[in-house]
């Protein structure tokens, strides 16, 4: 019986070759898209889920009330972990960390490597499951002279991981240098960890670097994690730590709470103290896209199967006449769709294997398509789901006809077939509505990314390179900068604590000025800078001047942006005194507002503080058009000044672009998904147009005999589909407006949604549909009347 059914299915595939190919291509594309998105979604959902203590591992968050708004952040004080450990008995361990992107230079003899170094409390490995190859997790960070290396960095320095415990390493950082010893080696951080680092050192090193005067309750910038004891009530812990900072500092306005560590990667976006999402929004978005593209492919199968019903209706009548039940017919047609789906799955698997490297390049992932039980199970579930969705409606439709009516040739258009026609058109409307939404979304995302790349930021990010100096260049920074400025092609040079791109250091207390509202909570971003930073970055002054070596008093000066002056309430700020951390600083200048964070954020109050000793990154502005030779000149000078250390630099404009990495990936992927959705939709429309033309062939012949022109035939055949696609456009445009507006609402600075974005997308969809249908319509219109009227 099975062999017989398979033979019938094979003959049917051969009989309707074009339908078979359209369904095979459409389902293969839909399944490949679904599988790739499944791999990405599964990887996103697994991030940070591998820690053994995951259910008890929490991150400490800070709610900082800023007048009428609440800013939520994971940035905490360096001394918070110790206080929590002492005052909250439900906490087994509390750990503070700093860095992870801090590039320490590690040296062994003449080998120098940069390592992203995380500074962490001694109980770090009690919380996080990063397996140690060498060393004990209780001891590797107990001594501030110890350093724990990743396997790859250990190999880079010693060519082995065996027998290196106790070996001496020199480390250097712009704030200092020292000698350490290898206390442990850990496996390289897995890809599904949000915490990335190459080496670990004791948090005591951070305390030594910043000094005791900086270890106060107004200084943020660290991360704090806690491991709760078993059966601990989280709400009780939140109640105990909520006002901890306020109890320690009378001027504090911050409240604390904890949340599961594994959730922060996906759910890290807050608005006014409330969780509103995060990366989970993209997980949901791509999941929906994958499901919809698969549905579009399934709809093609439904439409084409029901459209060719008149060609198979006699088969149904004969089978029923010789005893086949409706149940048997349903299983037969479902088997046909299942076989088609599994054939498509085999092709989809090959496509995924070929496309995955390019997909990884776009998404920055390291996804692999390996035959794990979970992946195989997911693939089978997706295929079964697709087969049932695609085949259920045609199976129910084809199996319902009465054999007596069919075999007497009395099958005609009736109420039931009108309902089928309505359903088929509804499915086309659904397909093309999604296609229009995709087109609008691609256009809006592209325009917003273009706006991000071309908008005036308030500083000039072009032609600037930056790097962290090492060796003698770090020890003699001023002498190095003086010589760099003399190099041919260098327009200006200075140094800064962080790049100007992204969030800066911040402070929310320990400052005052005349007329300050004692109840006002104003956070300030801090730019610790050297002389000439403002000139190097091309930031415009609104009032006053920048720091100058000609004024010895500038060591006690400060410069604000206009946003800061506005919230401080100054109308004439130059010469006013701003008391910061107990020291009076004179305001000597005001800069125009500039976008140091992404355009998702409003410009925040900020001040420049003259602190050459803390300005660890060198920035060099190069004369336009001379980048290549100037960088080569700077590289030679750096190597001569600093023998043994590689010149490793980055472009500031590239750093700026990394802020929009997620948006750029969405932009790129949305183009591919939109093209795929349109392609699959057009395949289905192409097939339906072919069957419509074939079914109406005698009508076409009669019309031509009666004098109808080819243009009239073309209009007749394409008119039905034009109306259907037009309905799709009418439905899709308001939906696409809502979707794109919601996405744009995530940007504080964004494009306007012009009407022509939507009308243009509708016209494009209509033109694509016309071109698709016209191919079959023109072919049918050119057939001679004699051939049309000839009986089969």
Structure, explained:
With about 800 residues, this protein is an alpha+beta fold. About 50% of the residues lie in helices and about 20% in strands. It is built from 26 helices and 26 strands. The strands form four sheets. Strands 17, 18, 19, 20, 21, 22, 23 and 24 form an eight-stranded mixed β-sheet that branches. Strand 1 (about 55-65) and strand 2 form a beta hairpin. Helix 2 crosses helix 12, helix 10 runs parallel beside helix 22 (about 660-695) and helix 15 crosses helix 25 (about 755-780). It is elongated, with a radius of gyration of 34 Å. About 40% of the residues are buried. The model is unreliable at about 410-415 (pLDDT under 50).
Supply database-style keywords.
50% helix, 792 residues, 6-stranded mixed barrel, alpha+beta, 8-stranded mixed sheet
In short:
This protein is an alpha+beta fold and 792 residues long. 50% of the residues lie in helices and 20% in strands. The strands form four sheets. Strands 17, 18, 19, 20, 21, 22, 23 and 24 form an eight-stranded mixed sheet that branches. A six-stranded mixed beta barrel has the order 4-5-10-7-9-8. Strands 16-25-15-26 form a four-stranded antiparallel sheet.
């Amino acid at each position: 019986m099975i062999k017989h059914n398979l033979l019938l299915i094979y003959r049917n595939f051969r009989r309707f070759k074009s339908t078979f190919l359209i369904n095979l291509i459409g389902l293969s594309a839909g399944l490949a898209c679904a599988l790739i998105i499944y791999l990405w979604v599964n990887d996103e959902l697994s991030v940070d889920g591998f820690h053994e203590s995951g259910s008890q591992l929490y991150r400490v968050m800070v709610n900082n009330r800023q007048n009428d708004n609440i800013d939520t952040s994971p940035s905490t004080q360096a001394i918070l972990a110790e206080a929590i450990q002492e005052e909250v008995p439900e906490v087994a361990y509390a750990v503070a960390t700093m860095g992870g992107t801090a590039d320490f230079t590690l040296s062994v003899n003449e080998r120098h490597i940069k390592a992203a170094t995380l500074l962490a409390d001694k109980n770090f490995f009690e919380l996080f499951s990063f397996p140690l190859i060498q060393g004990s997790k209780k001891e590797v960070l107990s001594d501030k002279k110890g350093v724990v290396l990743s396997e790859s960095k250990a190999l880079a320095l010693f060519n082995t991981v065996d027998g290196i415990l106790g070996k001496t390493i020199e480390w250097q950082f712009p704030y200092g240098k020292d000698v350490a010893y290898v206390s442990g080696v850990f496996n390289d951080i897995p890809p599904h960890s949000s915490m990335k680092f190459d080496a670990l050192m004791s948090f005591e090193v951070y305390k030594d670097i910043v000094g005791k005067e900086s270890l106060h309750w107004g200084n943020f910038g660290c991360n704090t994690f806690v491991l709760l004891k078993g059966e601990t009530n989280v709400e009780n812990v939140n109640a105990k730590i909520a006002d901890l900072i306020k109890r320690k500092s009378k001027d504090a306005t911050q409240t604390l709470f904890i949340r599961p560590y594994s959730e922060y990667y996906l759910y890290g976006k807050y608005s006014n103290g409330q969780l509103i999402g995060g990366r989970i929004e993209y997980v949901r978005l791509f999941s929906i896209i994958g499901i919809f593209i698969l549905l579009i492919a399934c709809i093609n199968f439904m439409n084409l199967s029901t459209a060719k019903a008149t060609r198979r209706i006699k088969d149904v009548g004969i089978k029923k006449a010789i005893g086949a039940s409706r149940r048997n017919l349903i299983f037969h047609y479902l088997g046909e769709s299942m076989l088609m789906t599994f054939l498509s799955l085999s092709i989809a698997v090959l496509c995924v294997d070929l496309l995955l490297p390019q997909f990884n390049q776009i998404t920055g992932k390291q996804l692999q398509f390996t035959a794990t039980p979970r992946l195989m199970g997911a693939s089978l579930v997706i295929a079964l789901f697709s087969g049932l969705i695609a085949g259920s409606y045609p199976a129910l439709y084809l199996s319902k006809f009465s054999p007596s009516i069919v075999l007497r040739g009395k099958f005609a258009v009736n109420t039931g077939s009108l309902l089928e026609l309505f359903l088929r058109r509804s499915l086309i409307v659904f397909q093309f509505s999604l296609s229009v939404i995709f087109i609008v979304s691609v256009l809006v995302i592209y325009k917003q990314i273009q706006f991000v790349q071309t908008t005036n930021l308030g500083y000039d990010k072009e032609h600037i390179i930056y790097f962290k100096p090492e060796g003698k260049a770090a020890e003699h920074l001023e002498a190095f900068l003086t010589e760099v400025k003399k190099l041919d092609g260098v327009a200006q040079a200075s140094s800064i604590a962080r790049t100007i791109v992204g969030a800066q250091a911040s402070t929310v207390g320990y400052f005052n000025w005349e007329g300050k509202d004692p109840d006002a909570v104003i956070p300030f971003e801090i730019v610790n800078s050297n002389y000439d930073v403002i000139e190097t970055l091309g930031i415009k002054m609104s009032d006053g001047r920048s720091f100058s070596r000609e004024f010895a008093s500038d060591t006690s000066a400060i410069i604000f942006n206009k946003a800061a002056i506005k919230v401080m309430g100054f109308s004439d700020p130059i010469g006013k005194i701003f008391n910061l951390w107990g020291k009076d600083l004179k305001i000597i200048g005001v800069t125009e507002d500039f976008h140091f964070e992404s355009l998702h954020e409003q410009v925040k109050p900020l001040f420049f503080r003259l602190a050459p000793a803390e300005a660890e990154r060198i920035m060099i502005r190069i004369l336009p058009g001379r980048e290549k030779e100037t960088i080569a000149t700077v590289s030679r000078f750096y190597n001569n000044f600093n023998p043994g250390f590689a010149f490793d630099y980055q472009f500031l404009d590239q750093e700026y672009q990394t802020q929009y990495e997620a948006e750029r990936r969405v932009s790129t992927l949305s183009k591919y998904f939109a093209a795929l959705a349109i392609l699959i939709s057009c395949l289905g429309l192409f097939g339906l147009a072919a069957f419509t033309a074939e079914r109406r062939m005698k009508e076409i012949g009669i019309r031509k005999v009666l004098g109808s022109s080819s243009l009239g035939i073309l209009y007749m055949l394409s008119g039905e589909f034009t109306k259907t696609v037009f309905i799709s456009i009418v439905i899709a445009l308001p939906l696409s407006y809502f979707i794109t507006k919601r996405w744009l609402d995530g940007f504080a600075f964004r494009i306007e949604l012009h009407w022509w974005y939507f009308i243009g997308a509708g016209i494009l969809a209509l033109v694509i549909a016309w071109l698709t249908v016209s191919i079959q319509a023109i072919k049918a219109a050119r057939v001679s009347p004699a051939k049309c009227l000839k009986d089969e």
